[in-house]
Write a structure and sequence with these properties.
two-stranded antiparallel ribbon, alpha+beta
């Protein structure tokens, strides 16, 4: 009579147990596949058939980089003419618009006969609008050196440009922080100027 070593004895018991297990599964009606196979859809839980919702991201429309505004130049006829400028949207303020006016006409506008009575050395020190609709514009540089018709035209350019913005009906002028009067078309000095006072040089319809 031969005796099995302990390792062979356990190997035989393991094979026997596996065989018994397969026999029991077969007896219970549970099919045993010898290779992987696809499950029918009706046998899969519904929640597993539904794809998981994809994460969505919402993007807001980019803010405009620049905004169009109107500034007024002087034509060869002596009347004001509106032209368009682009200013940074984040800085769409009265000061930014008046600064665009001070820069004067472009080369094509100059060739078309447009000019500015504002000296190139004019500086915009500040510009605010009160709740009454009156804008106070503080200027520096050589603006205070203007006299006669150029001074009237320069004041008219500023008044028409400022009042083209919503909520502005008139302009009070300051030089280096000191309130000053400006001449209108009639030659009179006024503390607050509006469009009607420059009717003779207003834009032609």
């Amino acid at each position: 009579m031969s005796t099995l070593s302990p390792s062979r004895h356990w190997a035989r018991l393991t094979v026997t147990a596996v065989g018994v297990g397969l026999f029991v599964l077969a007896g219970c009606g549970v099919p045993v596949d010898r290779s992987p196979s696809a499950l029918p859809r009706k046998g899969i839980p519904f929640r597993l058939l539904q794809p998981s919702p994809r994460a969505t991201t919402t993007t807001s429309a980019p803010l405009p980089v620049e905004a169009p505004v109107s500034i007024y130049l002087v034509a060869s006829t002596g009347h004001l003419v509106a032209v368009t400028r682009e200013v940074p949207a984040a800085q769409e303020s009265l000061a930014a618009v008046i600064s665009a006016l001070v820069r004067g006409p472009t080369n094509p506008e100059s060739l078309a006969g447009l000019a500015s009575a504002l000296p190139a050395q004019t500086t915009v020190l500040g510009a605010v609008t009160a709740g009454t609709g009156i804008a106070t514009i503080n200027l520096g540089g050589t603006f205070g050196q203007l006299v006669g018709q150029p001074q009237i035209e320069a004041a008219a350019q500023i008044v028409f440009t400022a009042t083209a913005l919503p909520g502005v009906s008139g302009v009070a002028f300051e030089l280096e922080g000191h309130a000053v009067g400006v001449p209108v078309a009639s030659g009179a000095q006024v503390p607050v100027a509006n469009r009607a006072q420059f009717a003779p040089i207003a834009p032609l319809l």
